[in-house]
Predict the structure.
Amino acid sequence: MNLSIWQIIFLAVLQGVTELFPISSLGHSVIIPGLLGWGNLINDTSCGGQSCFLPIIVALHLGTSIALVIYFWRDWLQIALTLAKNIKEGEVHTGTEEWVSWLIIIGIIPAAIKPELGFGAFFGGLAAGVVLGFLLFAPDWIGWHFSVFIVTDQRFIQITQKGLFHRAVSDIGLTQIQSINYEINGLQETMLGFGTIKMQTYVGDLVIRDVHHPAKTQKKLASILREEGVIVTSYPANQPTTADITNEEAEEA
């Protein structure tokens, strides 16, 4: 079986798109050709008596890796600087970006030492990755699930859960709220419909992250405040405020 250049381009695009989401891009590269009648890539031996699957998959992943390195070069630079700083200081703080940087390095050690490890090691590493991912994801899920905000006719109460053993409570009067803004940042937030609510108050800013349909939530909060006689400013957080426009006009003058 010989794939045409257009079929390979299709697989490359499929590989690049599915890498953005927590789904198997490798599985799609096997299943989709079979569903489209292109043949069985795994069992095909038309590449000099050997399977054509491995060279194609390696080339697709190599292209994806190069694209990610180019696009996220600032992040990779920050990771390198963070690792150098940790080595110099001799300590690493868990739950931080530097901790994630070290996890990335640890994750590539087996393949770097012995690339010819078989599928047994692959699935063993996959199982270990699932367990590690669950351990890393659990605190974030707990924080999201148990963090709530309550609006009464007098008060706004925000309960923020951070991990297992840290809970913060903010309690302010409705009259202290100056503005309610929202922000949707990035591809995933745009496609999945969640974002951040930012509330400016006389005592500081309140930030509510990972809110589903933040625009609707902002309008609902503003409606509740209007019903209670509190007038606030509502607008997307990435749009200029009246104060910002006034400052810009003053600078131009």
Remarks:
- The two ends are 70 Å apart (CA to CA).
